[in-house]
Specification:
The chain has six helices and five strands, in the order βαβαβαβαβαα. It is α/β, with parallel strands linked by helices. The protein has a five-stranded parallel sheet, with helices on both faces. The radius of gyration is 16 Å and the shape is globular. Bound molecules: adenosine-5'-diphosphate.
Length: 165
């Protein structure tokens, strides 16, 4: 069975993430989308909120499993018997980070490879921080976030970054 792990912060999940998940789910038998728990980082959404949003926007894809983990990605991948870690490559900054991460993961789990996917054209410049900025400038995020969570994401960002309310 071909199993992929797609880790990230998903703070919040965007159309860019969802596009990657849908494409990977066509190729692999099972895809674990894993919300990374990192106590050192400050996120807008809690881990459980991110998990719920991901479950909501992927419910049409039967071979996707949403999970959370504070383990190293390569160790988590070993645990679920994954063959491949999935990453998105938007630009040169992503490339620089990802190549180090790839070597690091490979040194821990030599049998688990990393596959990088390019975003579809609409999502090339999209990041979770762009979404927060748009909300804080009262711009619409409809084009950038799955429609089921647009209102929720807008409300939470406004509430927790309490400027422009
Ligand atoms: P960000 O880098 O926006 O904080 P994450 O940590 O949640 O996002 O990213 C998880 C993975 O998804 C990373 O491999 C990242 O490169 C990828 N990714 C993020 N945004 C996009 C996008 N718009 N299109 C394709 N891949 C993306």
């Amino acid at each position: 069975m071909k199993i992929a792990v797609y880790p990230g912060s998903f703070d919040p999940v965007s159309n860019g993430h969802l596009d990657i998940i849908e494409r990977v789910a066509k190729v692999f038998d099972k895809v674990y989308v894993v919300v990374a728990i990192n106590q050192q980082k400050h996120y807008t959404f809690t881990t459980d909120e991110k998990v719920l949003m991901l479950q909501k926007v992927t419910k049409h894809i039967p071979n996707v499993i949403i999970d959370k983990s504070s383990d190293l990605v390569s160790l988590y991948s070993q645990k679920v018997k994954a063959n491949v870690i999935i990453r998105g490559l938007r630009n040169f900054n992503d490339y620089q980070d990802e190549i180090s991460l790839f070597q690091f993961n490979r040194s821990i789990s030599p049998d688990i490879d990393t596959f990088a996917l390019f975003p579809s054209a609409n999502n090339l410049f999209l990041s979770s921080s762009t979404i927060k900025e748009l909300v804080l400038f009262n711009a619409s995020i409809e084009q950038y976030v799955p429609k089921e969570i647009v209102q929720y994401v807008t409300d939470i960002i406004k509430e927790r970054h309490s400027i422009n309310k």
